[in-house]
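Appendix C reproduces, verbatim, an entry submitted by the partner laboratory led by Prof. M.T., so that reviewers can inspect both the input and the predicted structure.
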Amino acid sequence: MIVQAETPLAIGTGEKSILSDATVVTDVNGLPYIPGTSLAGVIRSQLISCLDIDTIFGFQEKDKGHGSFIVFSDAMMIGSDGKPVEGLLDSKDNDEFYSLFRELPIRQHVRINSKGTGEKNGKFDNVVVYKGCRFCFEMEFISDGSLSNDFSQVKNTLLHSTFRVGGNTRSGLGKLKVVRMQTASLDLNKQEDLEAFVNKSASLSSNWDRYEDVSTEVKKDDNYITYTLNLKPDDFFLFGSGMGDDEADITPVSETVIEWKEERPSVMTENILIPGSSVKGALAHRTAYYWNKNAKLYADDNKGLSCNENPAVQTLFGYVDSTGKKVERGHVFVDDLLLSKQNDKIFNHVAIDRFTGGSMDGALFTEKTTNGKKCDLTVNIAVERKALENEEVKKAFEMSLDDICNGILPLGGGVNRGHGIFSGTIKKEE
């Protein structure tokens, strides 16, 4: 099985480093990989409502139980030669492609409150793996033949457009696409099949003659409703990096994307990033506004409910209680969007003293924005169906999506200066 990261990944270690609050798992070569436990856990959670999970994945209850009938290998990264990286790399293998992984991108986050400012202790960051990375893993299913339909459902789960692994999956990360899938079915009661199984190499890069290619067509997940926003920027937009460069004090955030040509990776840099977390944050605040408005809970009466208390936001985007313990996870998935490099526009700014009418000392700054007049953006949003069962919640959420497409809800930074206004259409798939 070969999978490709459709959005950046964050398979966390649970540890911090001197550079980041959250690091990703890496192998002995310092290259990212996906642990088999992560794959097994995600697939198990996806199938818990439609399969006898204890039978497939095993269970332990006092003196009763059995092991899992399905085994996952670690998903190792595919290297510059188009093969999975197994074992130690030679010094001659440390080419430009591998050196790219010595310093992975770090995402900066700030949690915004209902007043539009950063919350106390709301600044954090995490390391991510580049979009376009490919990984190879093996999945082995042991059965007497009676569970073949269950194995088909496991394979179909990997083909779902909503399949994600790792952390921050509701904030744009972790989406995987199957590039190649090969299967082989063996009856170990037959001598020929038994010998083929025993002689099979454990290497992920081996070409076993029993493998047959199967379809990797993406399948829709009936548990989700998807919204596709086809947007066109009115002019400029800015999703800030939090840093400057030699031209401006404020610059747009960008990340490297890996593309593949003839089964070999090629590197493209300076792709403009529109984080899913930025879109999700704006939607959450606007959903709270519309739910309050429709329920006639107004700020003038001191009855309006902020995001942390709003039922619509809690239902869709999850919430934590007063102790900080997560009570309900989010049900809205917004994919990251990476665009090819566009033309920049630099704006010069100076703060004016209200009393003298002159410029304030040290208040001159410049910002670099993206000229989006030639961009066509496609933002993919998936919502778990059960989160939209309440019609009032659904209405508030869809009104917020309409606001983005009508230019009423701008996205990104500098929106009070006219940036981030989009217009477009919504396609909804039940």
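The chain has eight helices and 23 strands. Additional entries are available on request from the coordinating office.
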